[in-house]
Amino acid sequence: SAAGTVSAQDVDALVQRHAPLCMRNLNDSLKYDKHLKHDGRLQFGLFIKGMGLSVEEALVFWRKAFSNISDDKFQKEYSYNVRYNYGLEGKRVNYSPYSCSKIITSNPPSTGDNHGCPFRHFSLPNLETRLLRDNISRTDADQILALARDKHYQLACTRHFEVTHPQSTARMDAIEHPNQYYEASKKLDED
Ligand code: SF4
Fold first, then answer.
1. Residue of the CA atom closest to atom 1 of ligand 1
2. Is the pLDDT assigned to residue 29 strictly greater than 90?
3. Are 155 and 174 in contact (CB under 8 A)?
4. Do 164 and 181 form a contact (C-beta atoms < 8 A)?
């Protein structure tokens, strides 16, 4: 989506309703911890940029999300990173949101990190728990888990899209990018 089409206050509801599991997981962690580590901020920050959040709204979003810290600390330690994502600091590259293959194959999360791809980086029991907690049926969860177990991570995510969007009649293209998942989900609401 074009920059400036989504405001800070809309992010949570839009992510909960339309984002893939990797980004819902980061959003949940951010709300729970009121913080995300650097790699999670990058993965999620570039994703919400791709949703259509301007840099001004991104700064509002992150300031509000990191509610345990002072304005001073936020300005000193975090606003640079947000502006960096938008190419306003450092190397001044207008960074793009990460693709699935980048998220799946590079920089795996360590303990305490929340970035990465749940279909690749969660243990199978944790993935199972999450799917069932999201009210995905036992049968559907088993199909998704089998794909993840066989290392077909993006197909697991594609199947996840299909079972969580039963109104989708067209055959889903394989998920290659978190923002593709998001846009396809959002479009179903608009149709
Ligand atoms: Fe996110 Fe891609 Fe993994 Fe789906 S396959 S959860 S969109 S990284």
1. 22
2. yes
3. yes
4. no
92 in the Ramachandran plot: left (φ > 0), alpha (ψ -120 to 50) or beta? left
Look at residues 39, 55, 85 and tell me which one is the last residue of a structural domain.
85
Same domain, 81 and 107: no
Residues in the chain: 191
* 80 and 111 share one domain: no
79 shares a domain with 133: no
**Which residues have CB under 6 Å of ligand 1?**
20-22, 100, 103-104, 117-119, 153-154, 157, 175, 178, 181
In a domain, 71, yes or no: yes
The ipTM of this complex is 0.99
> Is residue 1 predicted with pLDDT exceeding 70?
no
How many domains does the chain fold into? Answer: 2
**113 belongs to a structural domain:** yes
Residue among 120, 130, 154, 182 to mutate when testing ligand 1 (max atoms within 8 A of CB): 154
Distance of CA 30 from the midpoint of ligand 1 (Å): 18
- What domain range is 151 assigned to? 100-190
Distance 133 CA to ligand 1 centre (A): 18
Q: Average model confidence (pLDDT) for the chain?
A: 95
Residue nearest to atom 5 of ligand 1 (CA): 154
Q: Are 179 and 51 in contact (CB under 8 A)?
A: yes
